[in-house]
Write a structure and sequence with these properties.
The chain has a single domain, classed as Arp2/3 complex 21 kDa subunit ARPC3, CATH 1.10.1760. It is built from seven helices and four strands. By secondary structure, it is mainly alpha-helical. It starts with a strand and ends with a strand. It has a two-stranded parallel sheet with strand order 1-4. It has a two-stranded antiparallel ribbon with strand order 2-3.
Length: 213
């Protein structure tokens, strides 16, 4: 039996994966990790969203990509507000005595700042990514291999994200040298992830994967 999906199903699948990676990355980013000389947040999965955004753009168009980016930003904001609300709720005494409240506040008290930083950097970098992708596929890159659209759009958007996010999220927490290393580390990891996942653009064909409107 031939597998068929309609446009709504395609939108749900592509959009849900994008938003899931966004939300997971925001929580994981509360941890700062060290890999050799690399200092960065642990939200590494976020680097995948740039290429996945390209899949949404390829299949569903520019407006769908923009809508998904904005929706992810709104959901991130709601998550941050909810964490703030939960922190203020009274904790059970035994749980507090075991250090639960302090641990929760340390992680999820930091997350709202990270989410605000992510929303700002995401909206700027990924909307720029959308414009670059659109102009490339409609212009000089129209007849070039599909992987070029990923490399070109990510080459513009990931440096923006790598500078904006650490500045807002960790300024005042990390020293300036560490912050600079984090920016370079984020850019390096995003470049590696882009190159390693450029093939993902072929996960969906040039023609639409859904039937009907």
């Amino acid at each position: 039996m031939k597998f068929k999906i309609d446009k709504v199903q395609a939108a749900i699948i592509l959009g849900a994966v994008y938003i899931a990676m966004q939300l997971i990355a925001q929580i994981a980013a509360a941890k700062v990790i060290v890999l050799g000389h690399i200092i960065m947040d642990a939200g590494i999965i976020y680097a995948l969203t740039f290429t996945w955004r390209d899949l949404i753009h390829k299949q569903l168009g520019k407006k769908a990509a923009q809508t998904t980016i904005i929706l992810a930003g709104v959901l991130n904001l709601l998550m941050a507000l909810y964490f703030i609300f939960v922190i203020k709720l009274p904790g059970q005494s035994e749980w507090i005595a075991a250090g639960g409240q302090k641990a929760f506040e340390f992680i999820f008290g930091l997350v709202p700042r990270i989410i605000i930083a992510s929303i700002i950097s995401q909206l700027i970098s990924e909307l720029v990514d959308t414009e670059v992708y659109q102009r490339w596929t409609r212009g000089i890159g129209k007849n070039k291999p599909q992987w070029t659209r990923v490399l070109i759009s990510n080459a513009i958007s990931t440096p923006l994200d790598s500078i904006i996010f650490p500045t807002i999220a960790f300024a005042g927490i990390l020293s300036l040298p560490s912050l600079g290393i984090m920016m370079l580390s984020n850019l390096l990891i995003k470049a590696i992830v882009t190159i390693a996942t450029v093939w993902m653009i072929y996960l969906v064909p040039e023609k639409k994967i859904y039937h009907g409107r």
